[in-house]
Amino acid sequence: MKNGERLDKIVANMGYGSRKDVKKHIKNGRVKVNNEIIRNNELKINPEKDIIHFDDIQVNYRKFIYLMMNKPQGLVSSTDDSRSKTVVDIIDNKYKVFKPFPVGRLDKDTEGLLIISNDGKMAHELLSPRKKVNKKYYVEVDNYIEDEHINIFSEGITLDDGYKTLPSQLEVVNSSIISRVYLTIQEGKFHQVKRMFDTIGMKVIYLKRVSMGDLNLDKTLEPGEYRELTEYEINVLRNS
Ligand code: URA
User: Which of 5, 40, 212, 226 is the most buried (most CB within 10 A)?
Assistant: First the structure.
């Protein structure tokens, strides 16, 4: 096949070992394509059509991966960065081969829900301003939150550059010298949450994203941990 992908690459992508391991497995006759043992690593195949077996067990090809990370502070949300460690740096090689990228950005000092995937279409849908996907943040700020702040946020707030945000929902957990709130916004402007609180004279001292659309951060994930999304969660995300 002319336009396929190399057999060793595909089998390695499916988690059957490094490219080097897989080459050995192929040479040793452990891999079949369309029921025929293939010992040529370079054979180009179409993983969506050709049927691959490894030790006589069918290999389920997948094109996309979807990871949910509880992003820790200190990592940047990009695929590579000359100065800082990125969220992609800490994921396993078996996922890196899919060339995943973070779906949207969280600041270096922000924690919480970050989707890492190689599905560009899904990323575009989730991030498109047109879609108005809700993003909910847990926020700690350095002052008392009053009812008037809830109203100001619900009406949309004019940021330092003159941009007026869409209406947002502020839920107060407690109002104190350090207040704890949840803020739900539908956009993703640069440093948006911090800038919204700046406008009312408050500084964000802790920020964590807890949901995106109808997908919630798995509470069992510690900062820096990640896992694959379930089929159900992928659908939730697609329908958000
Ligand atoms: N708003 C911010 O200010 N920072 C983030 O990381 C996300 C939203």
Answer: 212
